[in-house]
Structure formats: C-alpha cells, structure tokens
Amino acid sequence: MAYPQNVFSNTTFPSPSFISRRREVVYANTLLYQLNVLKTTGRYDAFKLQWHPSYNDKPDVPPVPNHLFWDSDVAKWIEGACYFLQWKKNDEIEAAIKELVEMIRAAQQPDGYLNIHFTAVEPDKRFSNLRDLHELYNAGHLIEGALAHSDHYHNDLFLEPILKYVDLLSQTFGPGPDQKHGYPGHPEIELALLRLYEKTGNPKHLALATYFIEERGNPKGQEGRHYYDVEAEARGERENERPIYMPKPRSYWYQQAHEPIINQQTIEGHSVRAMYLLTACADLLRIEDNKNEKLRTAVERLWSNMVDKKMYLTGGIGAQKQWEGFGIDYFLPSGTDEGGCYAETCAGIGVMMLAERMLQLDLNGKYADIMELCFYNAVMTGMSASGKQFTYVNQLSSTDTDLSKRAEWFTCACCPPNVTRLLGYIGGYLWTFLNDKADSLQINVHLYSSAQLSIPIGDKVVELEQKSNWPWEGRIEFQFRNASEVASTIKLRIPSWAEDWQIVPSLPDRKLERGYLTLPPEWLKSSPSFVLEMPLKPRFVSPHPYTNQDVIALARGPLIYCLEDVDNSWVTDHFKSLVLDPESPIGETKVSADEMGEPYVALTVETKAPVLDVGMELIPHVALEAIKQEASGVVGNLHFIPYALRDNRGGKGHMRVGIRRKR
Ligand code: FUB
Ligand code: ZN
Q1: Quick one: which ligand is closest to 134's CA?
Q2: Are 395 and 381 in contact (CB under 8 A)?
Q3: The pLDDT value given to residue 659
Q4: Where's the Non-reducing end beta-L-arabinofuranosidase-like GH127 catalytic domain (predicted)?
Q5: Which of 137, 189, 272 to mutate to test the pocket of ligand 1 (most atoms within 8 A of CB)?
Q6: Which residues share a beta bridge with 561?
C-alpha cells in the first residue's frame, strides 16, 4: 500500500512535537467544532434530501449553488474523523459517523446515484454540467470518505453504496458509443478512483480513472467537438455565456481541459483542480510502473513550471483571485493592493499530495523540500491555535479590504475539513518504506518530527523512532530497533536550505544523492542509535527577481516568517512603507506557547534609522512631503513570528511577509 492515507497507521507520535500538538488540537477541538458547524448549517442533515431554506439562496459564484459542495464537506469530515479514531476513540464522533453513513445509504437512488443537489434540488439535471457543477468532485470525496471508513471499521456500510454509485458512473462515462465522453470540471474523483482500485483491484475502477485523465481536454471528444461545448449546447447555453470565474467563454484552461494533459506546457487555471489532477496522474504513473513517458514528462514539466515560476515563498500557489489559480509566469503579487494573491489552503494541501506522490516515483529532495515548505507555511497557516478558525485565502500581505484574519467557517468550506483530514493522516507523509522482500528494507525519511514508524517484517516489528523539537530545533535523534536480520538502508533528507549538517556517529562515506543521505546496512548495524544535527539559522529569502518584487523575507529552517501589528504596534499601513536592510543582525528568542498554542522561536531584526520610506519620489503629482514626514522615522526593532502562527493574538490584522529591501 503506497498511499499516505494507508501507511499513516504505521506511524505513531509517542512524544510531543509541533505535529502531535496540532493533532491533539484537531482531536480535542476541531472535529467536534466542525461537526457542530455541519449540523447548524444544514450539511449534516442534507443527505435526508429534504428542502433546506438555503437552497433558495442566490449563488455567490454563479452558476454554482452555494450548497453544491455539501456532500464533500461531510465526506471530508468523516474521512478525517476516521483517521483520528484509529488513534483515539470518541463516542460522540462515532455516533455522528454512524448516523451520517445511515443517511448516505438511505439517500442513494435505486440506480445507485448519490448526490444531494441533483436529488433534492435539480433531479432532472444530473450530469448535465460536468464543467461547473462538482457532481464528480463530490463523488470523489465520498469515495475517499468511504475508504477511510472501511479501513477504520472493517465493514462496508459506507463503501457498499459508493461501489454501487461508481458502477453507475462506469456505465455512464467512457469511450463507448452510448456513454458520455465527459470528465469532471473539478478533478478529485480520479485520485479517489485510483485509491479505490488499490483496495478493490477492480479493473473498472482503474479504467474509469484512466478514462477521466486521458480524455480530459480532447478537442474532439464528443461528436467531434470538445465535451464541454457539446454539454453547454445541450443545456441551451448562449455562445457568450460564461461562469464569472472564467475570463472568456471556453477558457477551459481554468479546468486544465484546454488540451490533453500530456500536451500541456505550463500549469494553468484553478490551482486546487490542477493539484488534484496531477496527483491522480502521478498515481496512475506509479500504477503503470512509471512507463508512460509522455505523462511522466508532462507531470514533471508542470511541477517545475509551478515551483520555479508560480509559487510563493510560503509554498502557496494561485495568484489570481478571479479563477482561484495561477497567473502568468512570475506573477506573484503578495496582496490585494498589488493585484492578487490567493494561495488557498486546499491548494497547499494539493501541492503536498502531489509532492508525496512524486517522491514515490523519484526520490528527490526537491519534492520533499516543497512538501515541507507547504506544510509548515501555506497549510498550517490555515488553522488557528484553537483549531476553531480557518483561512481559505492566504495572502502574503494584508490590506484594509483583506485583513490577516481567520474565519469560523465559509459558505464554500472546502479548506477547514481538508486541514482536518490532512492532520489525521499526516503520519503518512513523514516517511515511505519499501520492504518487498522479507529480509530487506529501505526507509526514506522525508520530514522530521517526533514520531515512530513500525513495520511488521516476518514475526518482528522493525521500528524507527525519531525525536526532535522540529521545526524549532535541528537536532534529530534516531533509534532503529529490531532490524538485526533485515538488511536495512535508511535515507535521510537533507533540505536544500541546510548549509551545514552532521551525522553522529560519523559516517565514513557521506553519500548525498539528490537531497538524501544514505545510511547503509553495515553502518546501521553498528549504529542503530544516531543523531542528525542541522543548525537552524535565520536567513533572508527573496522571490525570483523576475517577479519584480525587490523584497526580502525571513526564514528559519522550513519556516517563513511575517510581521504582525501585535508585535509592531506602530504600523498603520500593513508594513507597506517599511524597508529592511538585509545586512541587519537577526536575533532569536524562544517564546513559550501562550496564545499560539505552540512554543516557538521569534526573530528580531535590529533596524537602523530610517526604516520607513514611502518611496514615492517617482510620482511627481503626489504631495510627497506630508506623507513622508508622517511615514519616515525609526520604528525600533522589528519582531517577526512564523507565518503559520499569524492571527492568534488579536490585533488589527496587519501582516506582511516580504519587506521592501533597503538600497
Ligand atoms: O470548488 C470546490 C472547492 O471550493 C475548490 O477546490 C476550491 O478552490 C473552492 O472553489
Ligand atoms: Zn479550499
């Protein structure tokens, strides 16, 4: 089983760490908090298929009804809850899952169909708008929920109706003359079907996923035309009609359906869709033993385009609000007043999913570096210390219209339960292992934390335990146990930002290949306890010069830092007029957990006057002097905190990551 959603159960968290503390919060607060929201908003009961008053609401984003994703919100919550229940029981959560599964079973139509909106609200419109209406996206999340449920409860109560629904989908979609040659506007079902295939071994599940992936973007898919054109015409859509998130009619790059994936040169469109789709592509590659050269090259090409040219310093992706997605190369404004920035929490989770799948195809630290960057910044910023507030958009600088503030929930609530389920199976991201033969084992350690991996081999359980205060300290102690009869190799990731590192006891041949250090069997036999030391020093980082942003930001280890008004109370302009000298000394302070829920390392930059500069000399018609007098001056030292921990202490919501570089 290669999926992190399966192998996470080999990982436990016996001693405290950033990760275990976040998991504790989700278990203690978030699951029940989100369950309550599901109930109070109508989502919980929606599978009863009764009318809900909100079904009359005008869509916030036409033509997408606000409640269209309710199936997925419930499914993601069940999925996350099942992961946590494998760790600790909870009667209230168990009872809710039981009731939800009963409702889902009862909501299934006689032919297998299973969807709230297209049963309770528009039953005559099934599969009539794959482009915009998330029917198959919801189906994908139901599949993933059912897989987690079946793994936890060892019964088919949830999986059974889902398999019946998938049968209906397999009959409906495919290359046959009587089938629809369509595919989802929002990918998700592809990766879910591939995971389902891993469990069932049913070739129909593989075939449907493959069909959705390969058919996507076919210009002549249906009646010699693009499927979405034919579908739109059948709905009576006018030629110039378009959803508001598409800049022009037929902007099918929004759904990554402008051409077949293997031909796509740059990563385009809605960022969550792109990540879910590419994750499925990577899964398909692995299932096909990485033999599909064209698909492999396309996925690698799109990954590189994204990471090199379309990713924020935080690992966030998606610069354009209109389509919640990618802009042109190097277009990475940090906030609304600069022209955008979206960096949705789900998109960060999607990057992690893709990175993890790429690592399984190609053990290269460049994927793990990005996976870690996303986790500790773009994703972990998505949930408050309390586990009861969330972000959807994660800008790198606030403005008066978009303050750095979390919310209790969203109308379109994809992100909060996505963080929940990610933390449920996060153990599956720390490491991968290969033990095809009974007497050999390879463990690849991608992320550091305090955790234990247990791998049953023969009649023994081989264990690898790591203990560290990562990401705050760079010393990781390892214990490798019970492996005496197994020829074992461990590969440790050395992050690309690590200037210096040491392994103790020393390793005669320090073989660092593509970001991983190999600890060979002979060495491990004599050194089952070893330590990796990696000093975590603060450093300045900058976006690529082609972004035209002459800014510097602070990083330490995998963490990106930001300024908040809570620590820098003089700020009135979201730190826009601030300039920072990259030569400034940086101090570190250990701060106890307080409101952050996490003991952390704060950074202080000692500034030299003047540090405020309105920088408007180039605009002659602006009355500069008054502004300058007000803005210029010494503000004293600048206090930075990890971006992931922002908005936990009140304040005005002024925040910035990248500060203008002082010349
Ligand atoms: O459309 C479903 C989810 O809601 C997407 O992944 C998010 O970007 C948001 O649009
Ligand atoms: Zn989301």
Answers
A1: 1
A2: no
A3: 95
A4: 17-424
A5: 272
A6: 642
Q: Angle 350-12-414 (CA atoms, 0-180°, nearest 5)?
A: 25
Task: Establish whether the linkage from the previous residue to 63 is cis, with ω within 30° of 0.
Answer: yes
Q: Which residue type does 110 have?
A: P
- Owner of token pair 């499927």: 227
Does 435-533 match 4-429 at the fold level? no
The answer, yes or no, to whether any atom of ligand 1 lies below 6 A from the CB of 324, is: yes
Instruction: Indicate which ligand has the atom closest to the C-alpha of 392.
Output: 2
Question: Domain residues of the chain, as ranges?
Answer: 4-429, 435-533, 538-661
Task: Tell me which of 186, 246, 271, 321 to substitute to probe ligand 1's pocket, judged by most ligand atoms within 8 Å of the beta carbon.
Answer: 186
Q: Of 2, 1, 78, nearest to 34 (Cα)?
A: 78
User: Would you say 564 and 595 are in contact if contact means Cβ atoms under 8 Å apart?
Assistant: no
Determine which helix (DSSP H) or strand (DSSP E) holds 153, and give its type and residue range. helix 135-153
Which pLDDT does position 613 carry in this prediction?
66
**Does ligand 1 come within 6 angstroms of the Cβ of 346?**
yes
Q: What pLDDT score was predicted for residue 609?
A: 56
Atom 2, ligand 1: residue with shortest CA distance: 414
* Residue 246 Cα to ligand 1 middle (Å): 14
Q: Point out the residues of the chain with pLDDT beneath 70.
A: 1, 608-634
Q: How do the residues of the chain divide into helix, strand and coil, expressed in percent and rounded to 5?
A: 40, 15, 45
User: Positive or negative CA dihedral for 35, 37, 40, 42?
Assistant: negative
Vertex 62 angle, CA 347 and 226, to 5°: 75
Contact 580, 611 (CB under 8 A): yes
- 362 Cβ partners below 8 Å, 6+ apart? none
**What is the distance between the alpha carbons of residues 657 and 188, in angstroms, rounded to a whole number?**
32
Q: Alpha-carbon distance 117 to 110, whole Å?
A: 16
For residue 344, the CA-to-ligand 2 centroid distance in Å is 6
User: φ, ψ for residue 496 (rounded to 5)?
Assistant: -65, -20
Q: How far does the centroid of ligand 1 lie from the alpha carbon of residue 146, in Å?
A: 21
CATH topology of domain 4-429: Glycosyltransferase (1.50.10)
Structure tokens at 119: 């049963």
Output the CA 347–ligand 2 centroid distance in Å: 7
Ligand nearest to the CA of 65: 1
State the maximum Cα–Cα separation within the chain, in Å, rounded to a whole number: 80
Q: Is the CB of 503 under 6 A from ligand 1?
A: no
Are the CB atoms for 88 and 429 separated by under 8 Å? no
Q: What is the per-residue pLDDT across 226-243, written as a single tens digit (0 to 9) for each?
A: 999 999 999 999 989 999
Identify which of 344, 349, 418 to mutate to test ligand 1's pocket (most ligand atoms within 8 A of the CB): 344
Distance of CA 568 from the midpoint of ligand 2 (Å): 30
CA pair distance 234, 371, nearest whole angstrom: 42
As beta bridge partners, residue 559 has 556
Please state which architecture CATH assigns to domain 435-533: Sandwich (2.60)
Give the pLDDT confidence score for residue 618 in this predicted structure. Answer: 44
Ligand found nearest the CA of 138:
1
Relative to the CA of 270, which ligand 1 atom is closest?
Answer: 8
CA distance 86 to 659: 44
641, HSE (Cβ side, Cα atoms, 13 Å): 22
Q: In whole angstroms, what separates CA 33 from the centre of its chain?
A: 21
Ligand 2 center to residue 415 CA distance, Å? 4
Residue 414 Cβ contacting ligand 1 at under 6 Å: yes
Q: Is-contact 129 227, C-beta < 8 A?
A: no
d(CA 117, CA 46): 9
Distance CA 137, CA 179 (A): 19
Beta bridge partners of 311: 317
- Residues 288, 290, 291, 292: what is their CA dihedral angle, to the nearest 10 degrees? 90
